[in-house]
Amino acid sequence: MREVHACAPDVLQVTLTAGNGPAWQSGKWTVTRANSAQIAVRSVHRDSVAVGAPDYQIGFGKPYRDDVLNVDHRIYLALAEPIGNLEILRIQGPQGTNILLPFNDRYLETPAIHLNQAGYNPHATRRYAYISGWMGDGGSLPLTRFPATAEILDDSRAVIGTAPITERSAMDPEAGGEVKQIDLSSVTPAEKTTFRLRIPGVGVSWPTSVSQASALHSFYIVTRGLFHNRWAGDLKPQFTEWSRPPDYHHVYTGELADFVKLFPADTPRTAERRLTGGYHDAGDFEQRPMSTVVPQLLMRALELNAKPFTDRQLNIPESGNGIPDLLDEALWGVVPWEQLQESDGGVRLGVQSNRHPWGFYLANEDPLPYWTFSRDANTSARAAGIFAQAARLVSPYDKARSAALKQRAVKAWSYADANQAGNGGRLYAAGELYRLTGLQIYKDAFERVWRSIGPYGAFNEFAPYQLSQSDYKTGKRSMSDYVEAYIAASPASEIKTVAVTWFTKYADEALKRMETEHAYRNPRPAKYPMDWGQGTTMVRFLDTVIARMQLGGLSPQQKQQYFDALSLAADYVLGANPAGLVYITGLGSRPVEEPLHLDSLVFIKRGKGPMPGIPVFGPTATAPKAAYTLPVVAAFYPAFAQRPEAFRYADVRSVPHFNEFSVWETQAPEVELFAILLGAPL
Question: How far is CA 126 from CA 218, 514, 556, in A?
Answer without folding.
Answer: 18, 12, 15
